[in-house]
Amino acid sequence: MTKKLARTFLTIGLMSLILASPLSAQQDTENADPMQLARGAKAWAENCARCHNLRSPSDLDDEEWHVSVIHMRIRANLPKATADDIMAFLHASNRDQK
Ligand code: HEC
What is the average per-residue pLDDT within 53-58? Predict the structure, then answer.
């Protein structure tokens, strides 16, 4: 019984490690998932020029984009996942131009 319980906890522990790793990779734009950047670039082009001209990613730094995307996510009525993709794209695209 205790052995079975221990195995259950071990399984849960391993599962949360596996589930947590892609999440932490998303936070870190140095190791940004290329698929996320591709989704972000597409969503950015499709959504962020609906109401005004596209602002170049290099116009704002990471902190400014963070504030702006939270603001624009509400204006554009985007799901969080899409806003996260756009944020990752903007952070990755302005980095080298500063
Ligand atoms: C529904 C219309 C709409 C959409 C879609 C939209 N914007 Fe905006 N945006 C605005 C308006 C209106 C302003 C002027 C500021 C305000 O009144 O909110 C603005 C201002 C901005 C600014 C100026 C700084 C700021 O935060 O106010 C930036 C940068 C910006 N938008 C980026 C984006 C990005 C990136 C997206 C895509 C995620 C986006 N916008 C999508 C309406 C929109």
Answer: 95
